Amino acid sequence: MPNPVTLGSATIPVAPPAPILAPQPAPPQLGLFEGAIANVGNPGVVAPVPTQVGFAGGPTASGVIIDPSPPLIAPLNDTAPWPAATNHVFVAPGSPRITLMQQSQPVRLTISGSFENLHAFIMFRQSFPSAERTISFIHQPLVLAASRIPGAAEVQRRLLNDQEHLQSIAPLPRARISHFRGSVKDRCASAVAMMFNIHSSPAEIARTVEKQLNNYTYIFAKGPNAASFSGPAMRTRPYRNPAIIMVIRGLYFSPGISSFANRHKALFPRVHANDGTINLAAPKAMVALVATGLYAALNEWRTGEFKSADFAATTYLDVYNGHIAAMEHIETHRNDAFNVMMTDAYHQVITGAPSAASSTTEIATIDLDTLEG
Asked: Would strands 220-222 and 51-53 be described as parallel, antiparallel, or unpaired?
């Protein structure tokens, strides 16, 4: 596990926690995933510090929730025989494997429908669920999918009551977790090739990569402006490197109305500013995953020559957890700066320019050297 994060020699006062008021109803017209779990809280605002709003069962101001929420429908403990339409069709007699297209329509639609829900879990909750938690992590996206599919009520009931049934289905959505992470790594590899001068001699490439990996330089904004690909690292503005912004925009905010971000807009954390406005913020899991993907893509060039490596939890979990720990440390000790950091990241993804607040709120230099796994 990564060591604790320090904030250099700066003494940072800890802002008092904002009071939490009663949850408010979820916004209307939510998507498949967020309509089931989103319940927007409305913390009071402690002026002049903006206060982050979390979602029940999702990301909150106190940190990323590792384990998914309990099933939305309590198990019925029904011992009646299961309808044939809920049974699996295995690839061969005695084989534990199933394929998607061989299944009955309600089972097939439940499994395929869970992929979008699972993608949202990965981006808003936890991008590297532990092996021992994977089944419980997959369970709720499957239950949510079945709850929205006409004719799948018995599939949902069986998922809630039959653990063996769930174990048989799980490999199909589980495979999607690596797929979702892999798409992030591929986009990060393209960003690294474009933005970090991976086109020169091996010796120069090695120097460039080492400079970026040293003290996690690659996560910081570059001067003199938000879109700058060069210039000195602005170490008071973490998680706003143009590579991070570009990857998030390309993967999740394009193409516009049909984008992942638009489909799950209700899940983005909200920050109440003291002027009464509400600003959307980038979720920690999403930012940490992209930062980890950039680290992995840079690390493949560390010797000056490309050496491919799997983007696997066994290799990069500590890096991901380190980024989560860094953000949570800032959130705890400088909540105002944390909120500006995450709303500014979101603002730059949308507009390509920093928010006004980012020029007046900075963070003490962060020592991230202990975060490497």
From this structure: unpaired
Distance CA 225, CA 204 (A): 25
* Cα radius of gyration (the chain): 22
pLDDT tens-digit map of 108-162? 999 999 999 999 999 999 999 887 788 888 999 999 999 999 999 999 999 999 9
Show the tokens assigned to 206: 């090695």
Distance CA 114, CA 134 (A): 14
Both tokens of residue 174?
């589980």
Q: Which residues contact 115 (CB under 8 A, 6 or more apart)?
A: 141, 173, 176
Strand segments (E) across 169-223: 220-222
% of the chain exceeding 70 in pLDDT: 72
pLDDT tens figures, 156-192: 999 999 999 999 999 999 999 999 999 999 999 999 9
Task: Describe the crossing of helices 171-195 and 134-147 by its angle, rounded to 10 degrees.
Answer: 100
Where are the strands (E) in 23-112, listed by range? 51-53
Contact between residue 173 and residue 166 where contact means Cβ atoms under 8 Å apart: no
Other beta carbons within 10 angstroms of residue 140's beta carbon come to 24
How many other CB atoms sit within 10 Å of the CB of residue 197? Answer: 17
Per the structure block, which two tokens stand in for 312?
A: 């696997």
Q: Enter the pTM of the model.
A: 0.76
